[in-house]
């Protein structure tokens, strides 16, 4: 009796999305995309390798564990959405009111909706885990301190500057959530109105 012919199934070669070796930032960017589209539970080594078209060896070249990747992702978020923004606004070389106006305009920039989605996912994650909770707290403190400094530069004393900074930060964060569904004002009008509300010379009653 003749043996049946065996069918040889050849594995398709892994398709790399980049010709050059992947960097740590490539892995972080991929993790952030999953976080934005899904949530932190979707950030798995297998899923990342499939997305980037590489084997696990490539992942472990850059990170010892998944937790190391999550730390790098949070650090990237802090640097990109806070430290780099502060550096850019401060480098504009304008007076503190104009810098505050630049901050109020941020939620209306073309890349802001995606950034807002990432931030919302990280803040949601922070309600369940210490690692992102500490990162969010640090980011909020850095942003708040910077805005406080702007109001101090406008001439308000420390306590008054902190009150106005808190109000300004609430307005800024609220607009980042609502601007995608409500469009009562364009970016310039919103920034001008928000600045008028927070930087008026009358003292805020404590």
UniProtKB/TrEMBL annotation:
Q: Which UniProt keywords apply?
A: DNA-binding
Q: Which residues bind DNA?
A: 44-63
Q: What is this protein called?
A: Transcriptional regulator, TetR family
Q: Which SUPFAM superfamilies match?
A: Homeodomain-like
- A GO molecular function held by the record: DNA binding
Lineage top rank: taxon:
Bacteria
Residue ranges, annotated region (Disordered): 1-22
Q: InterPro entries, from UniProt?
A: Homeodomain-like_sf, HTH_TetR
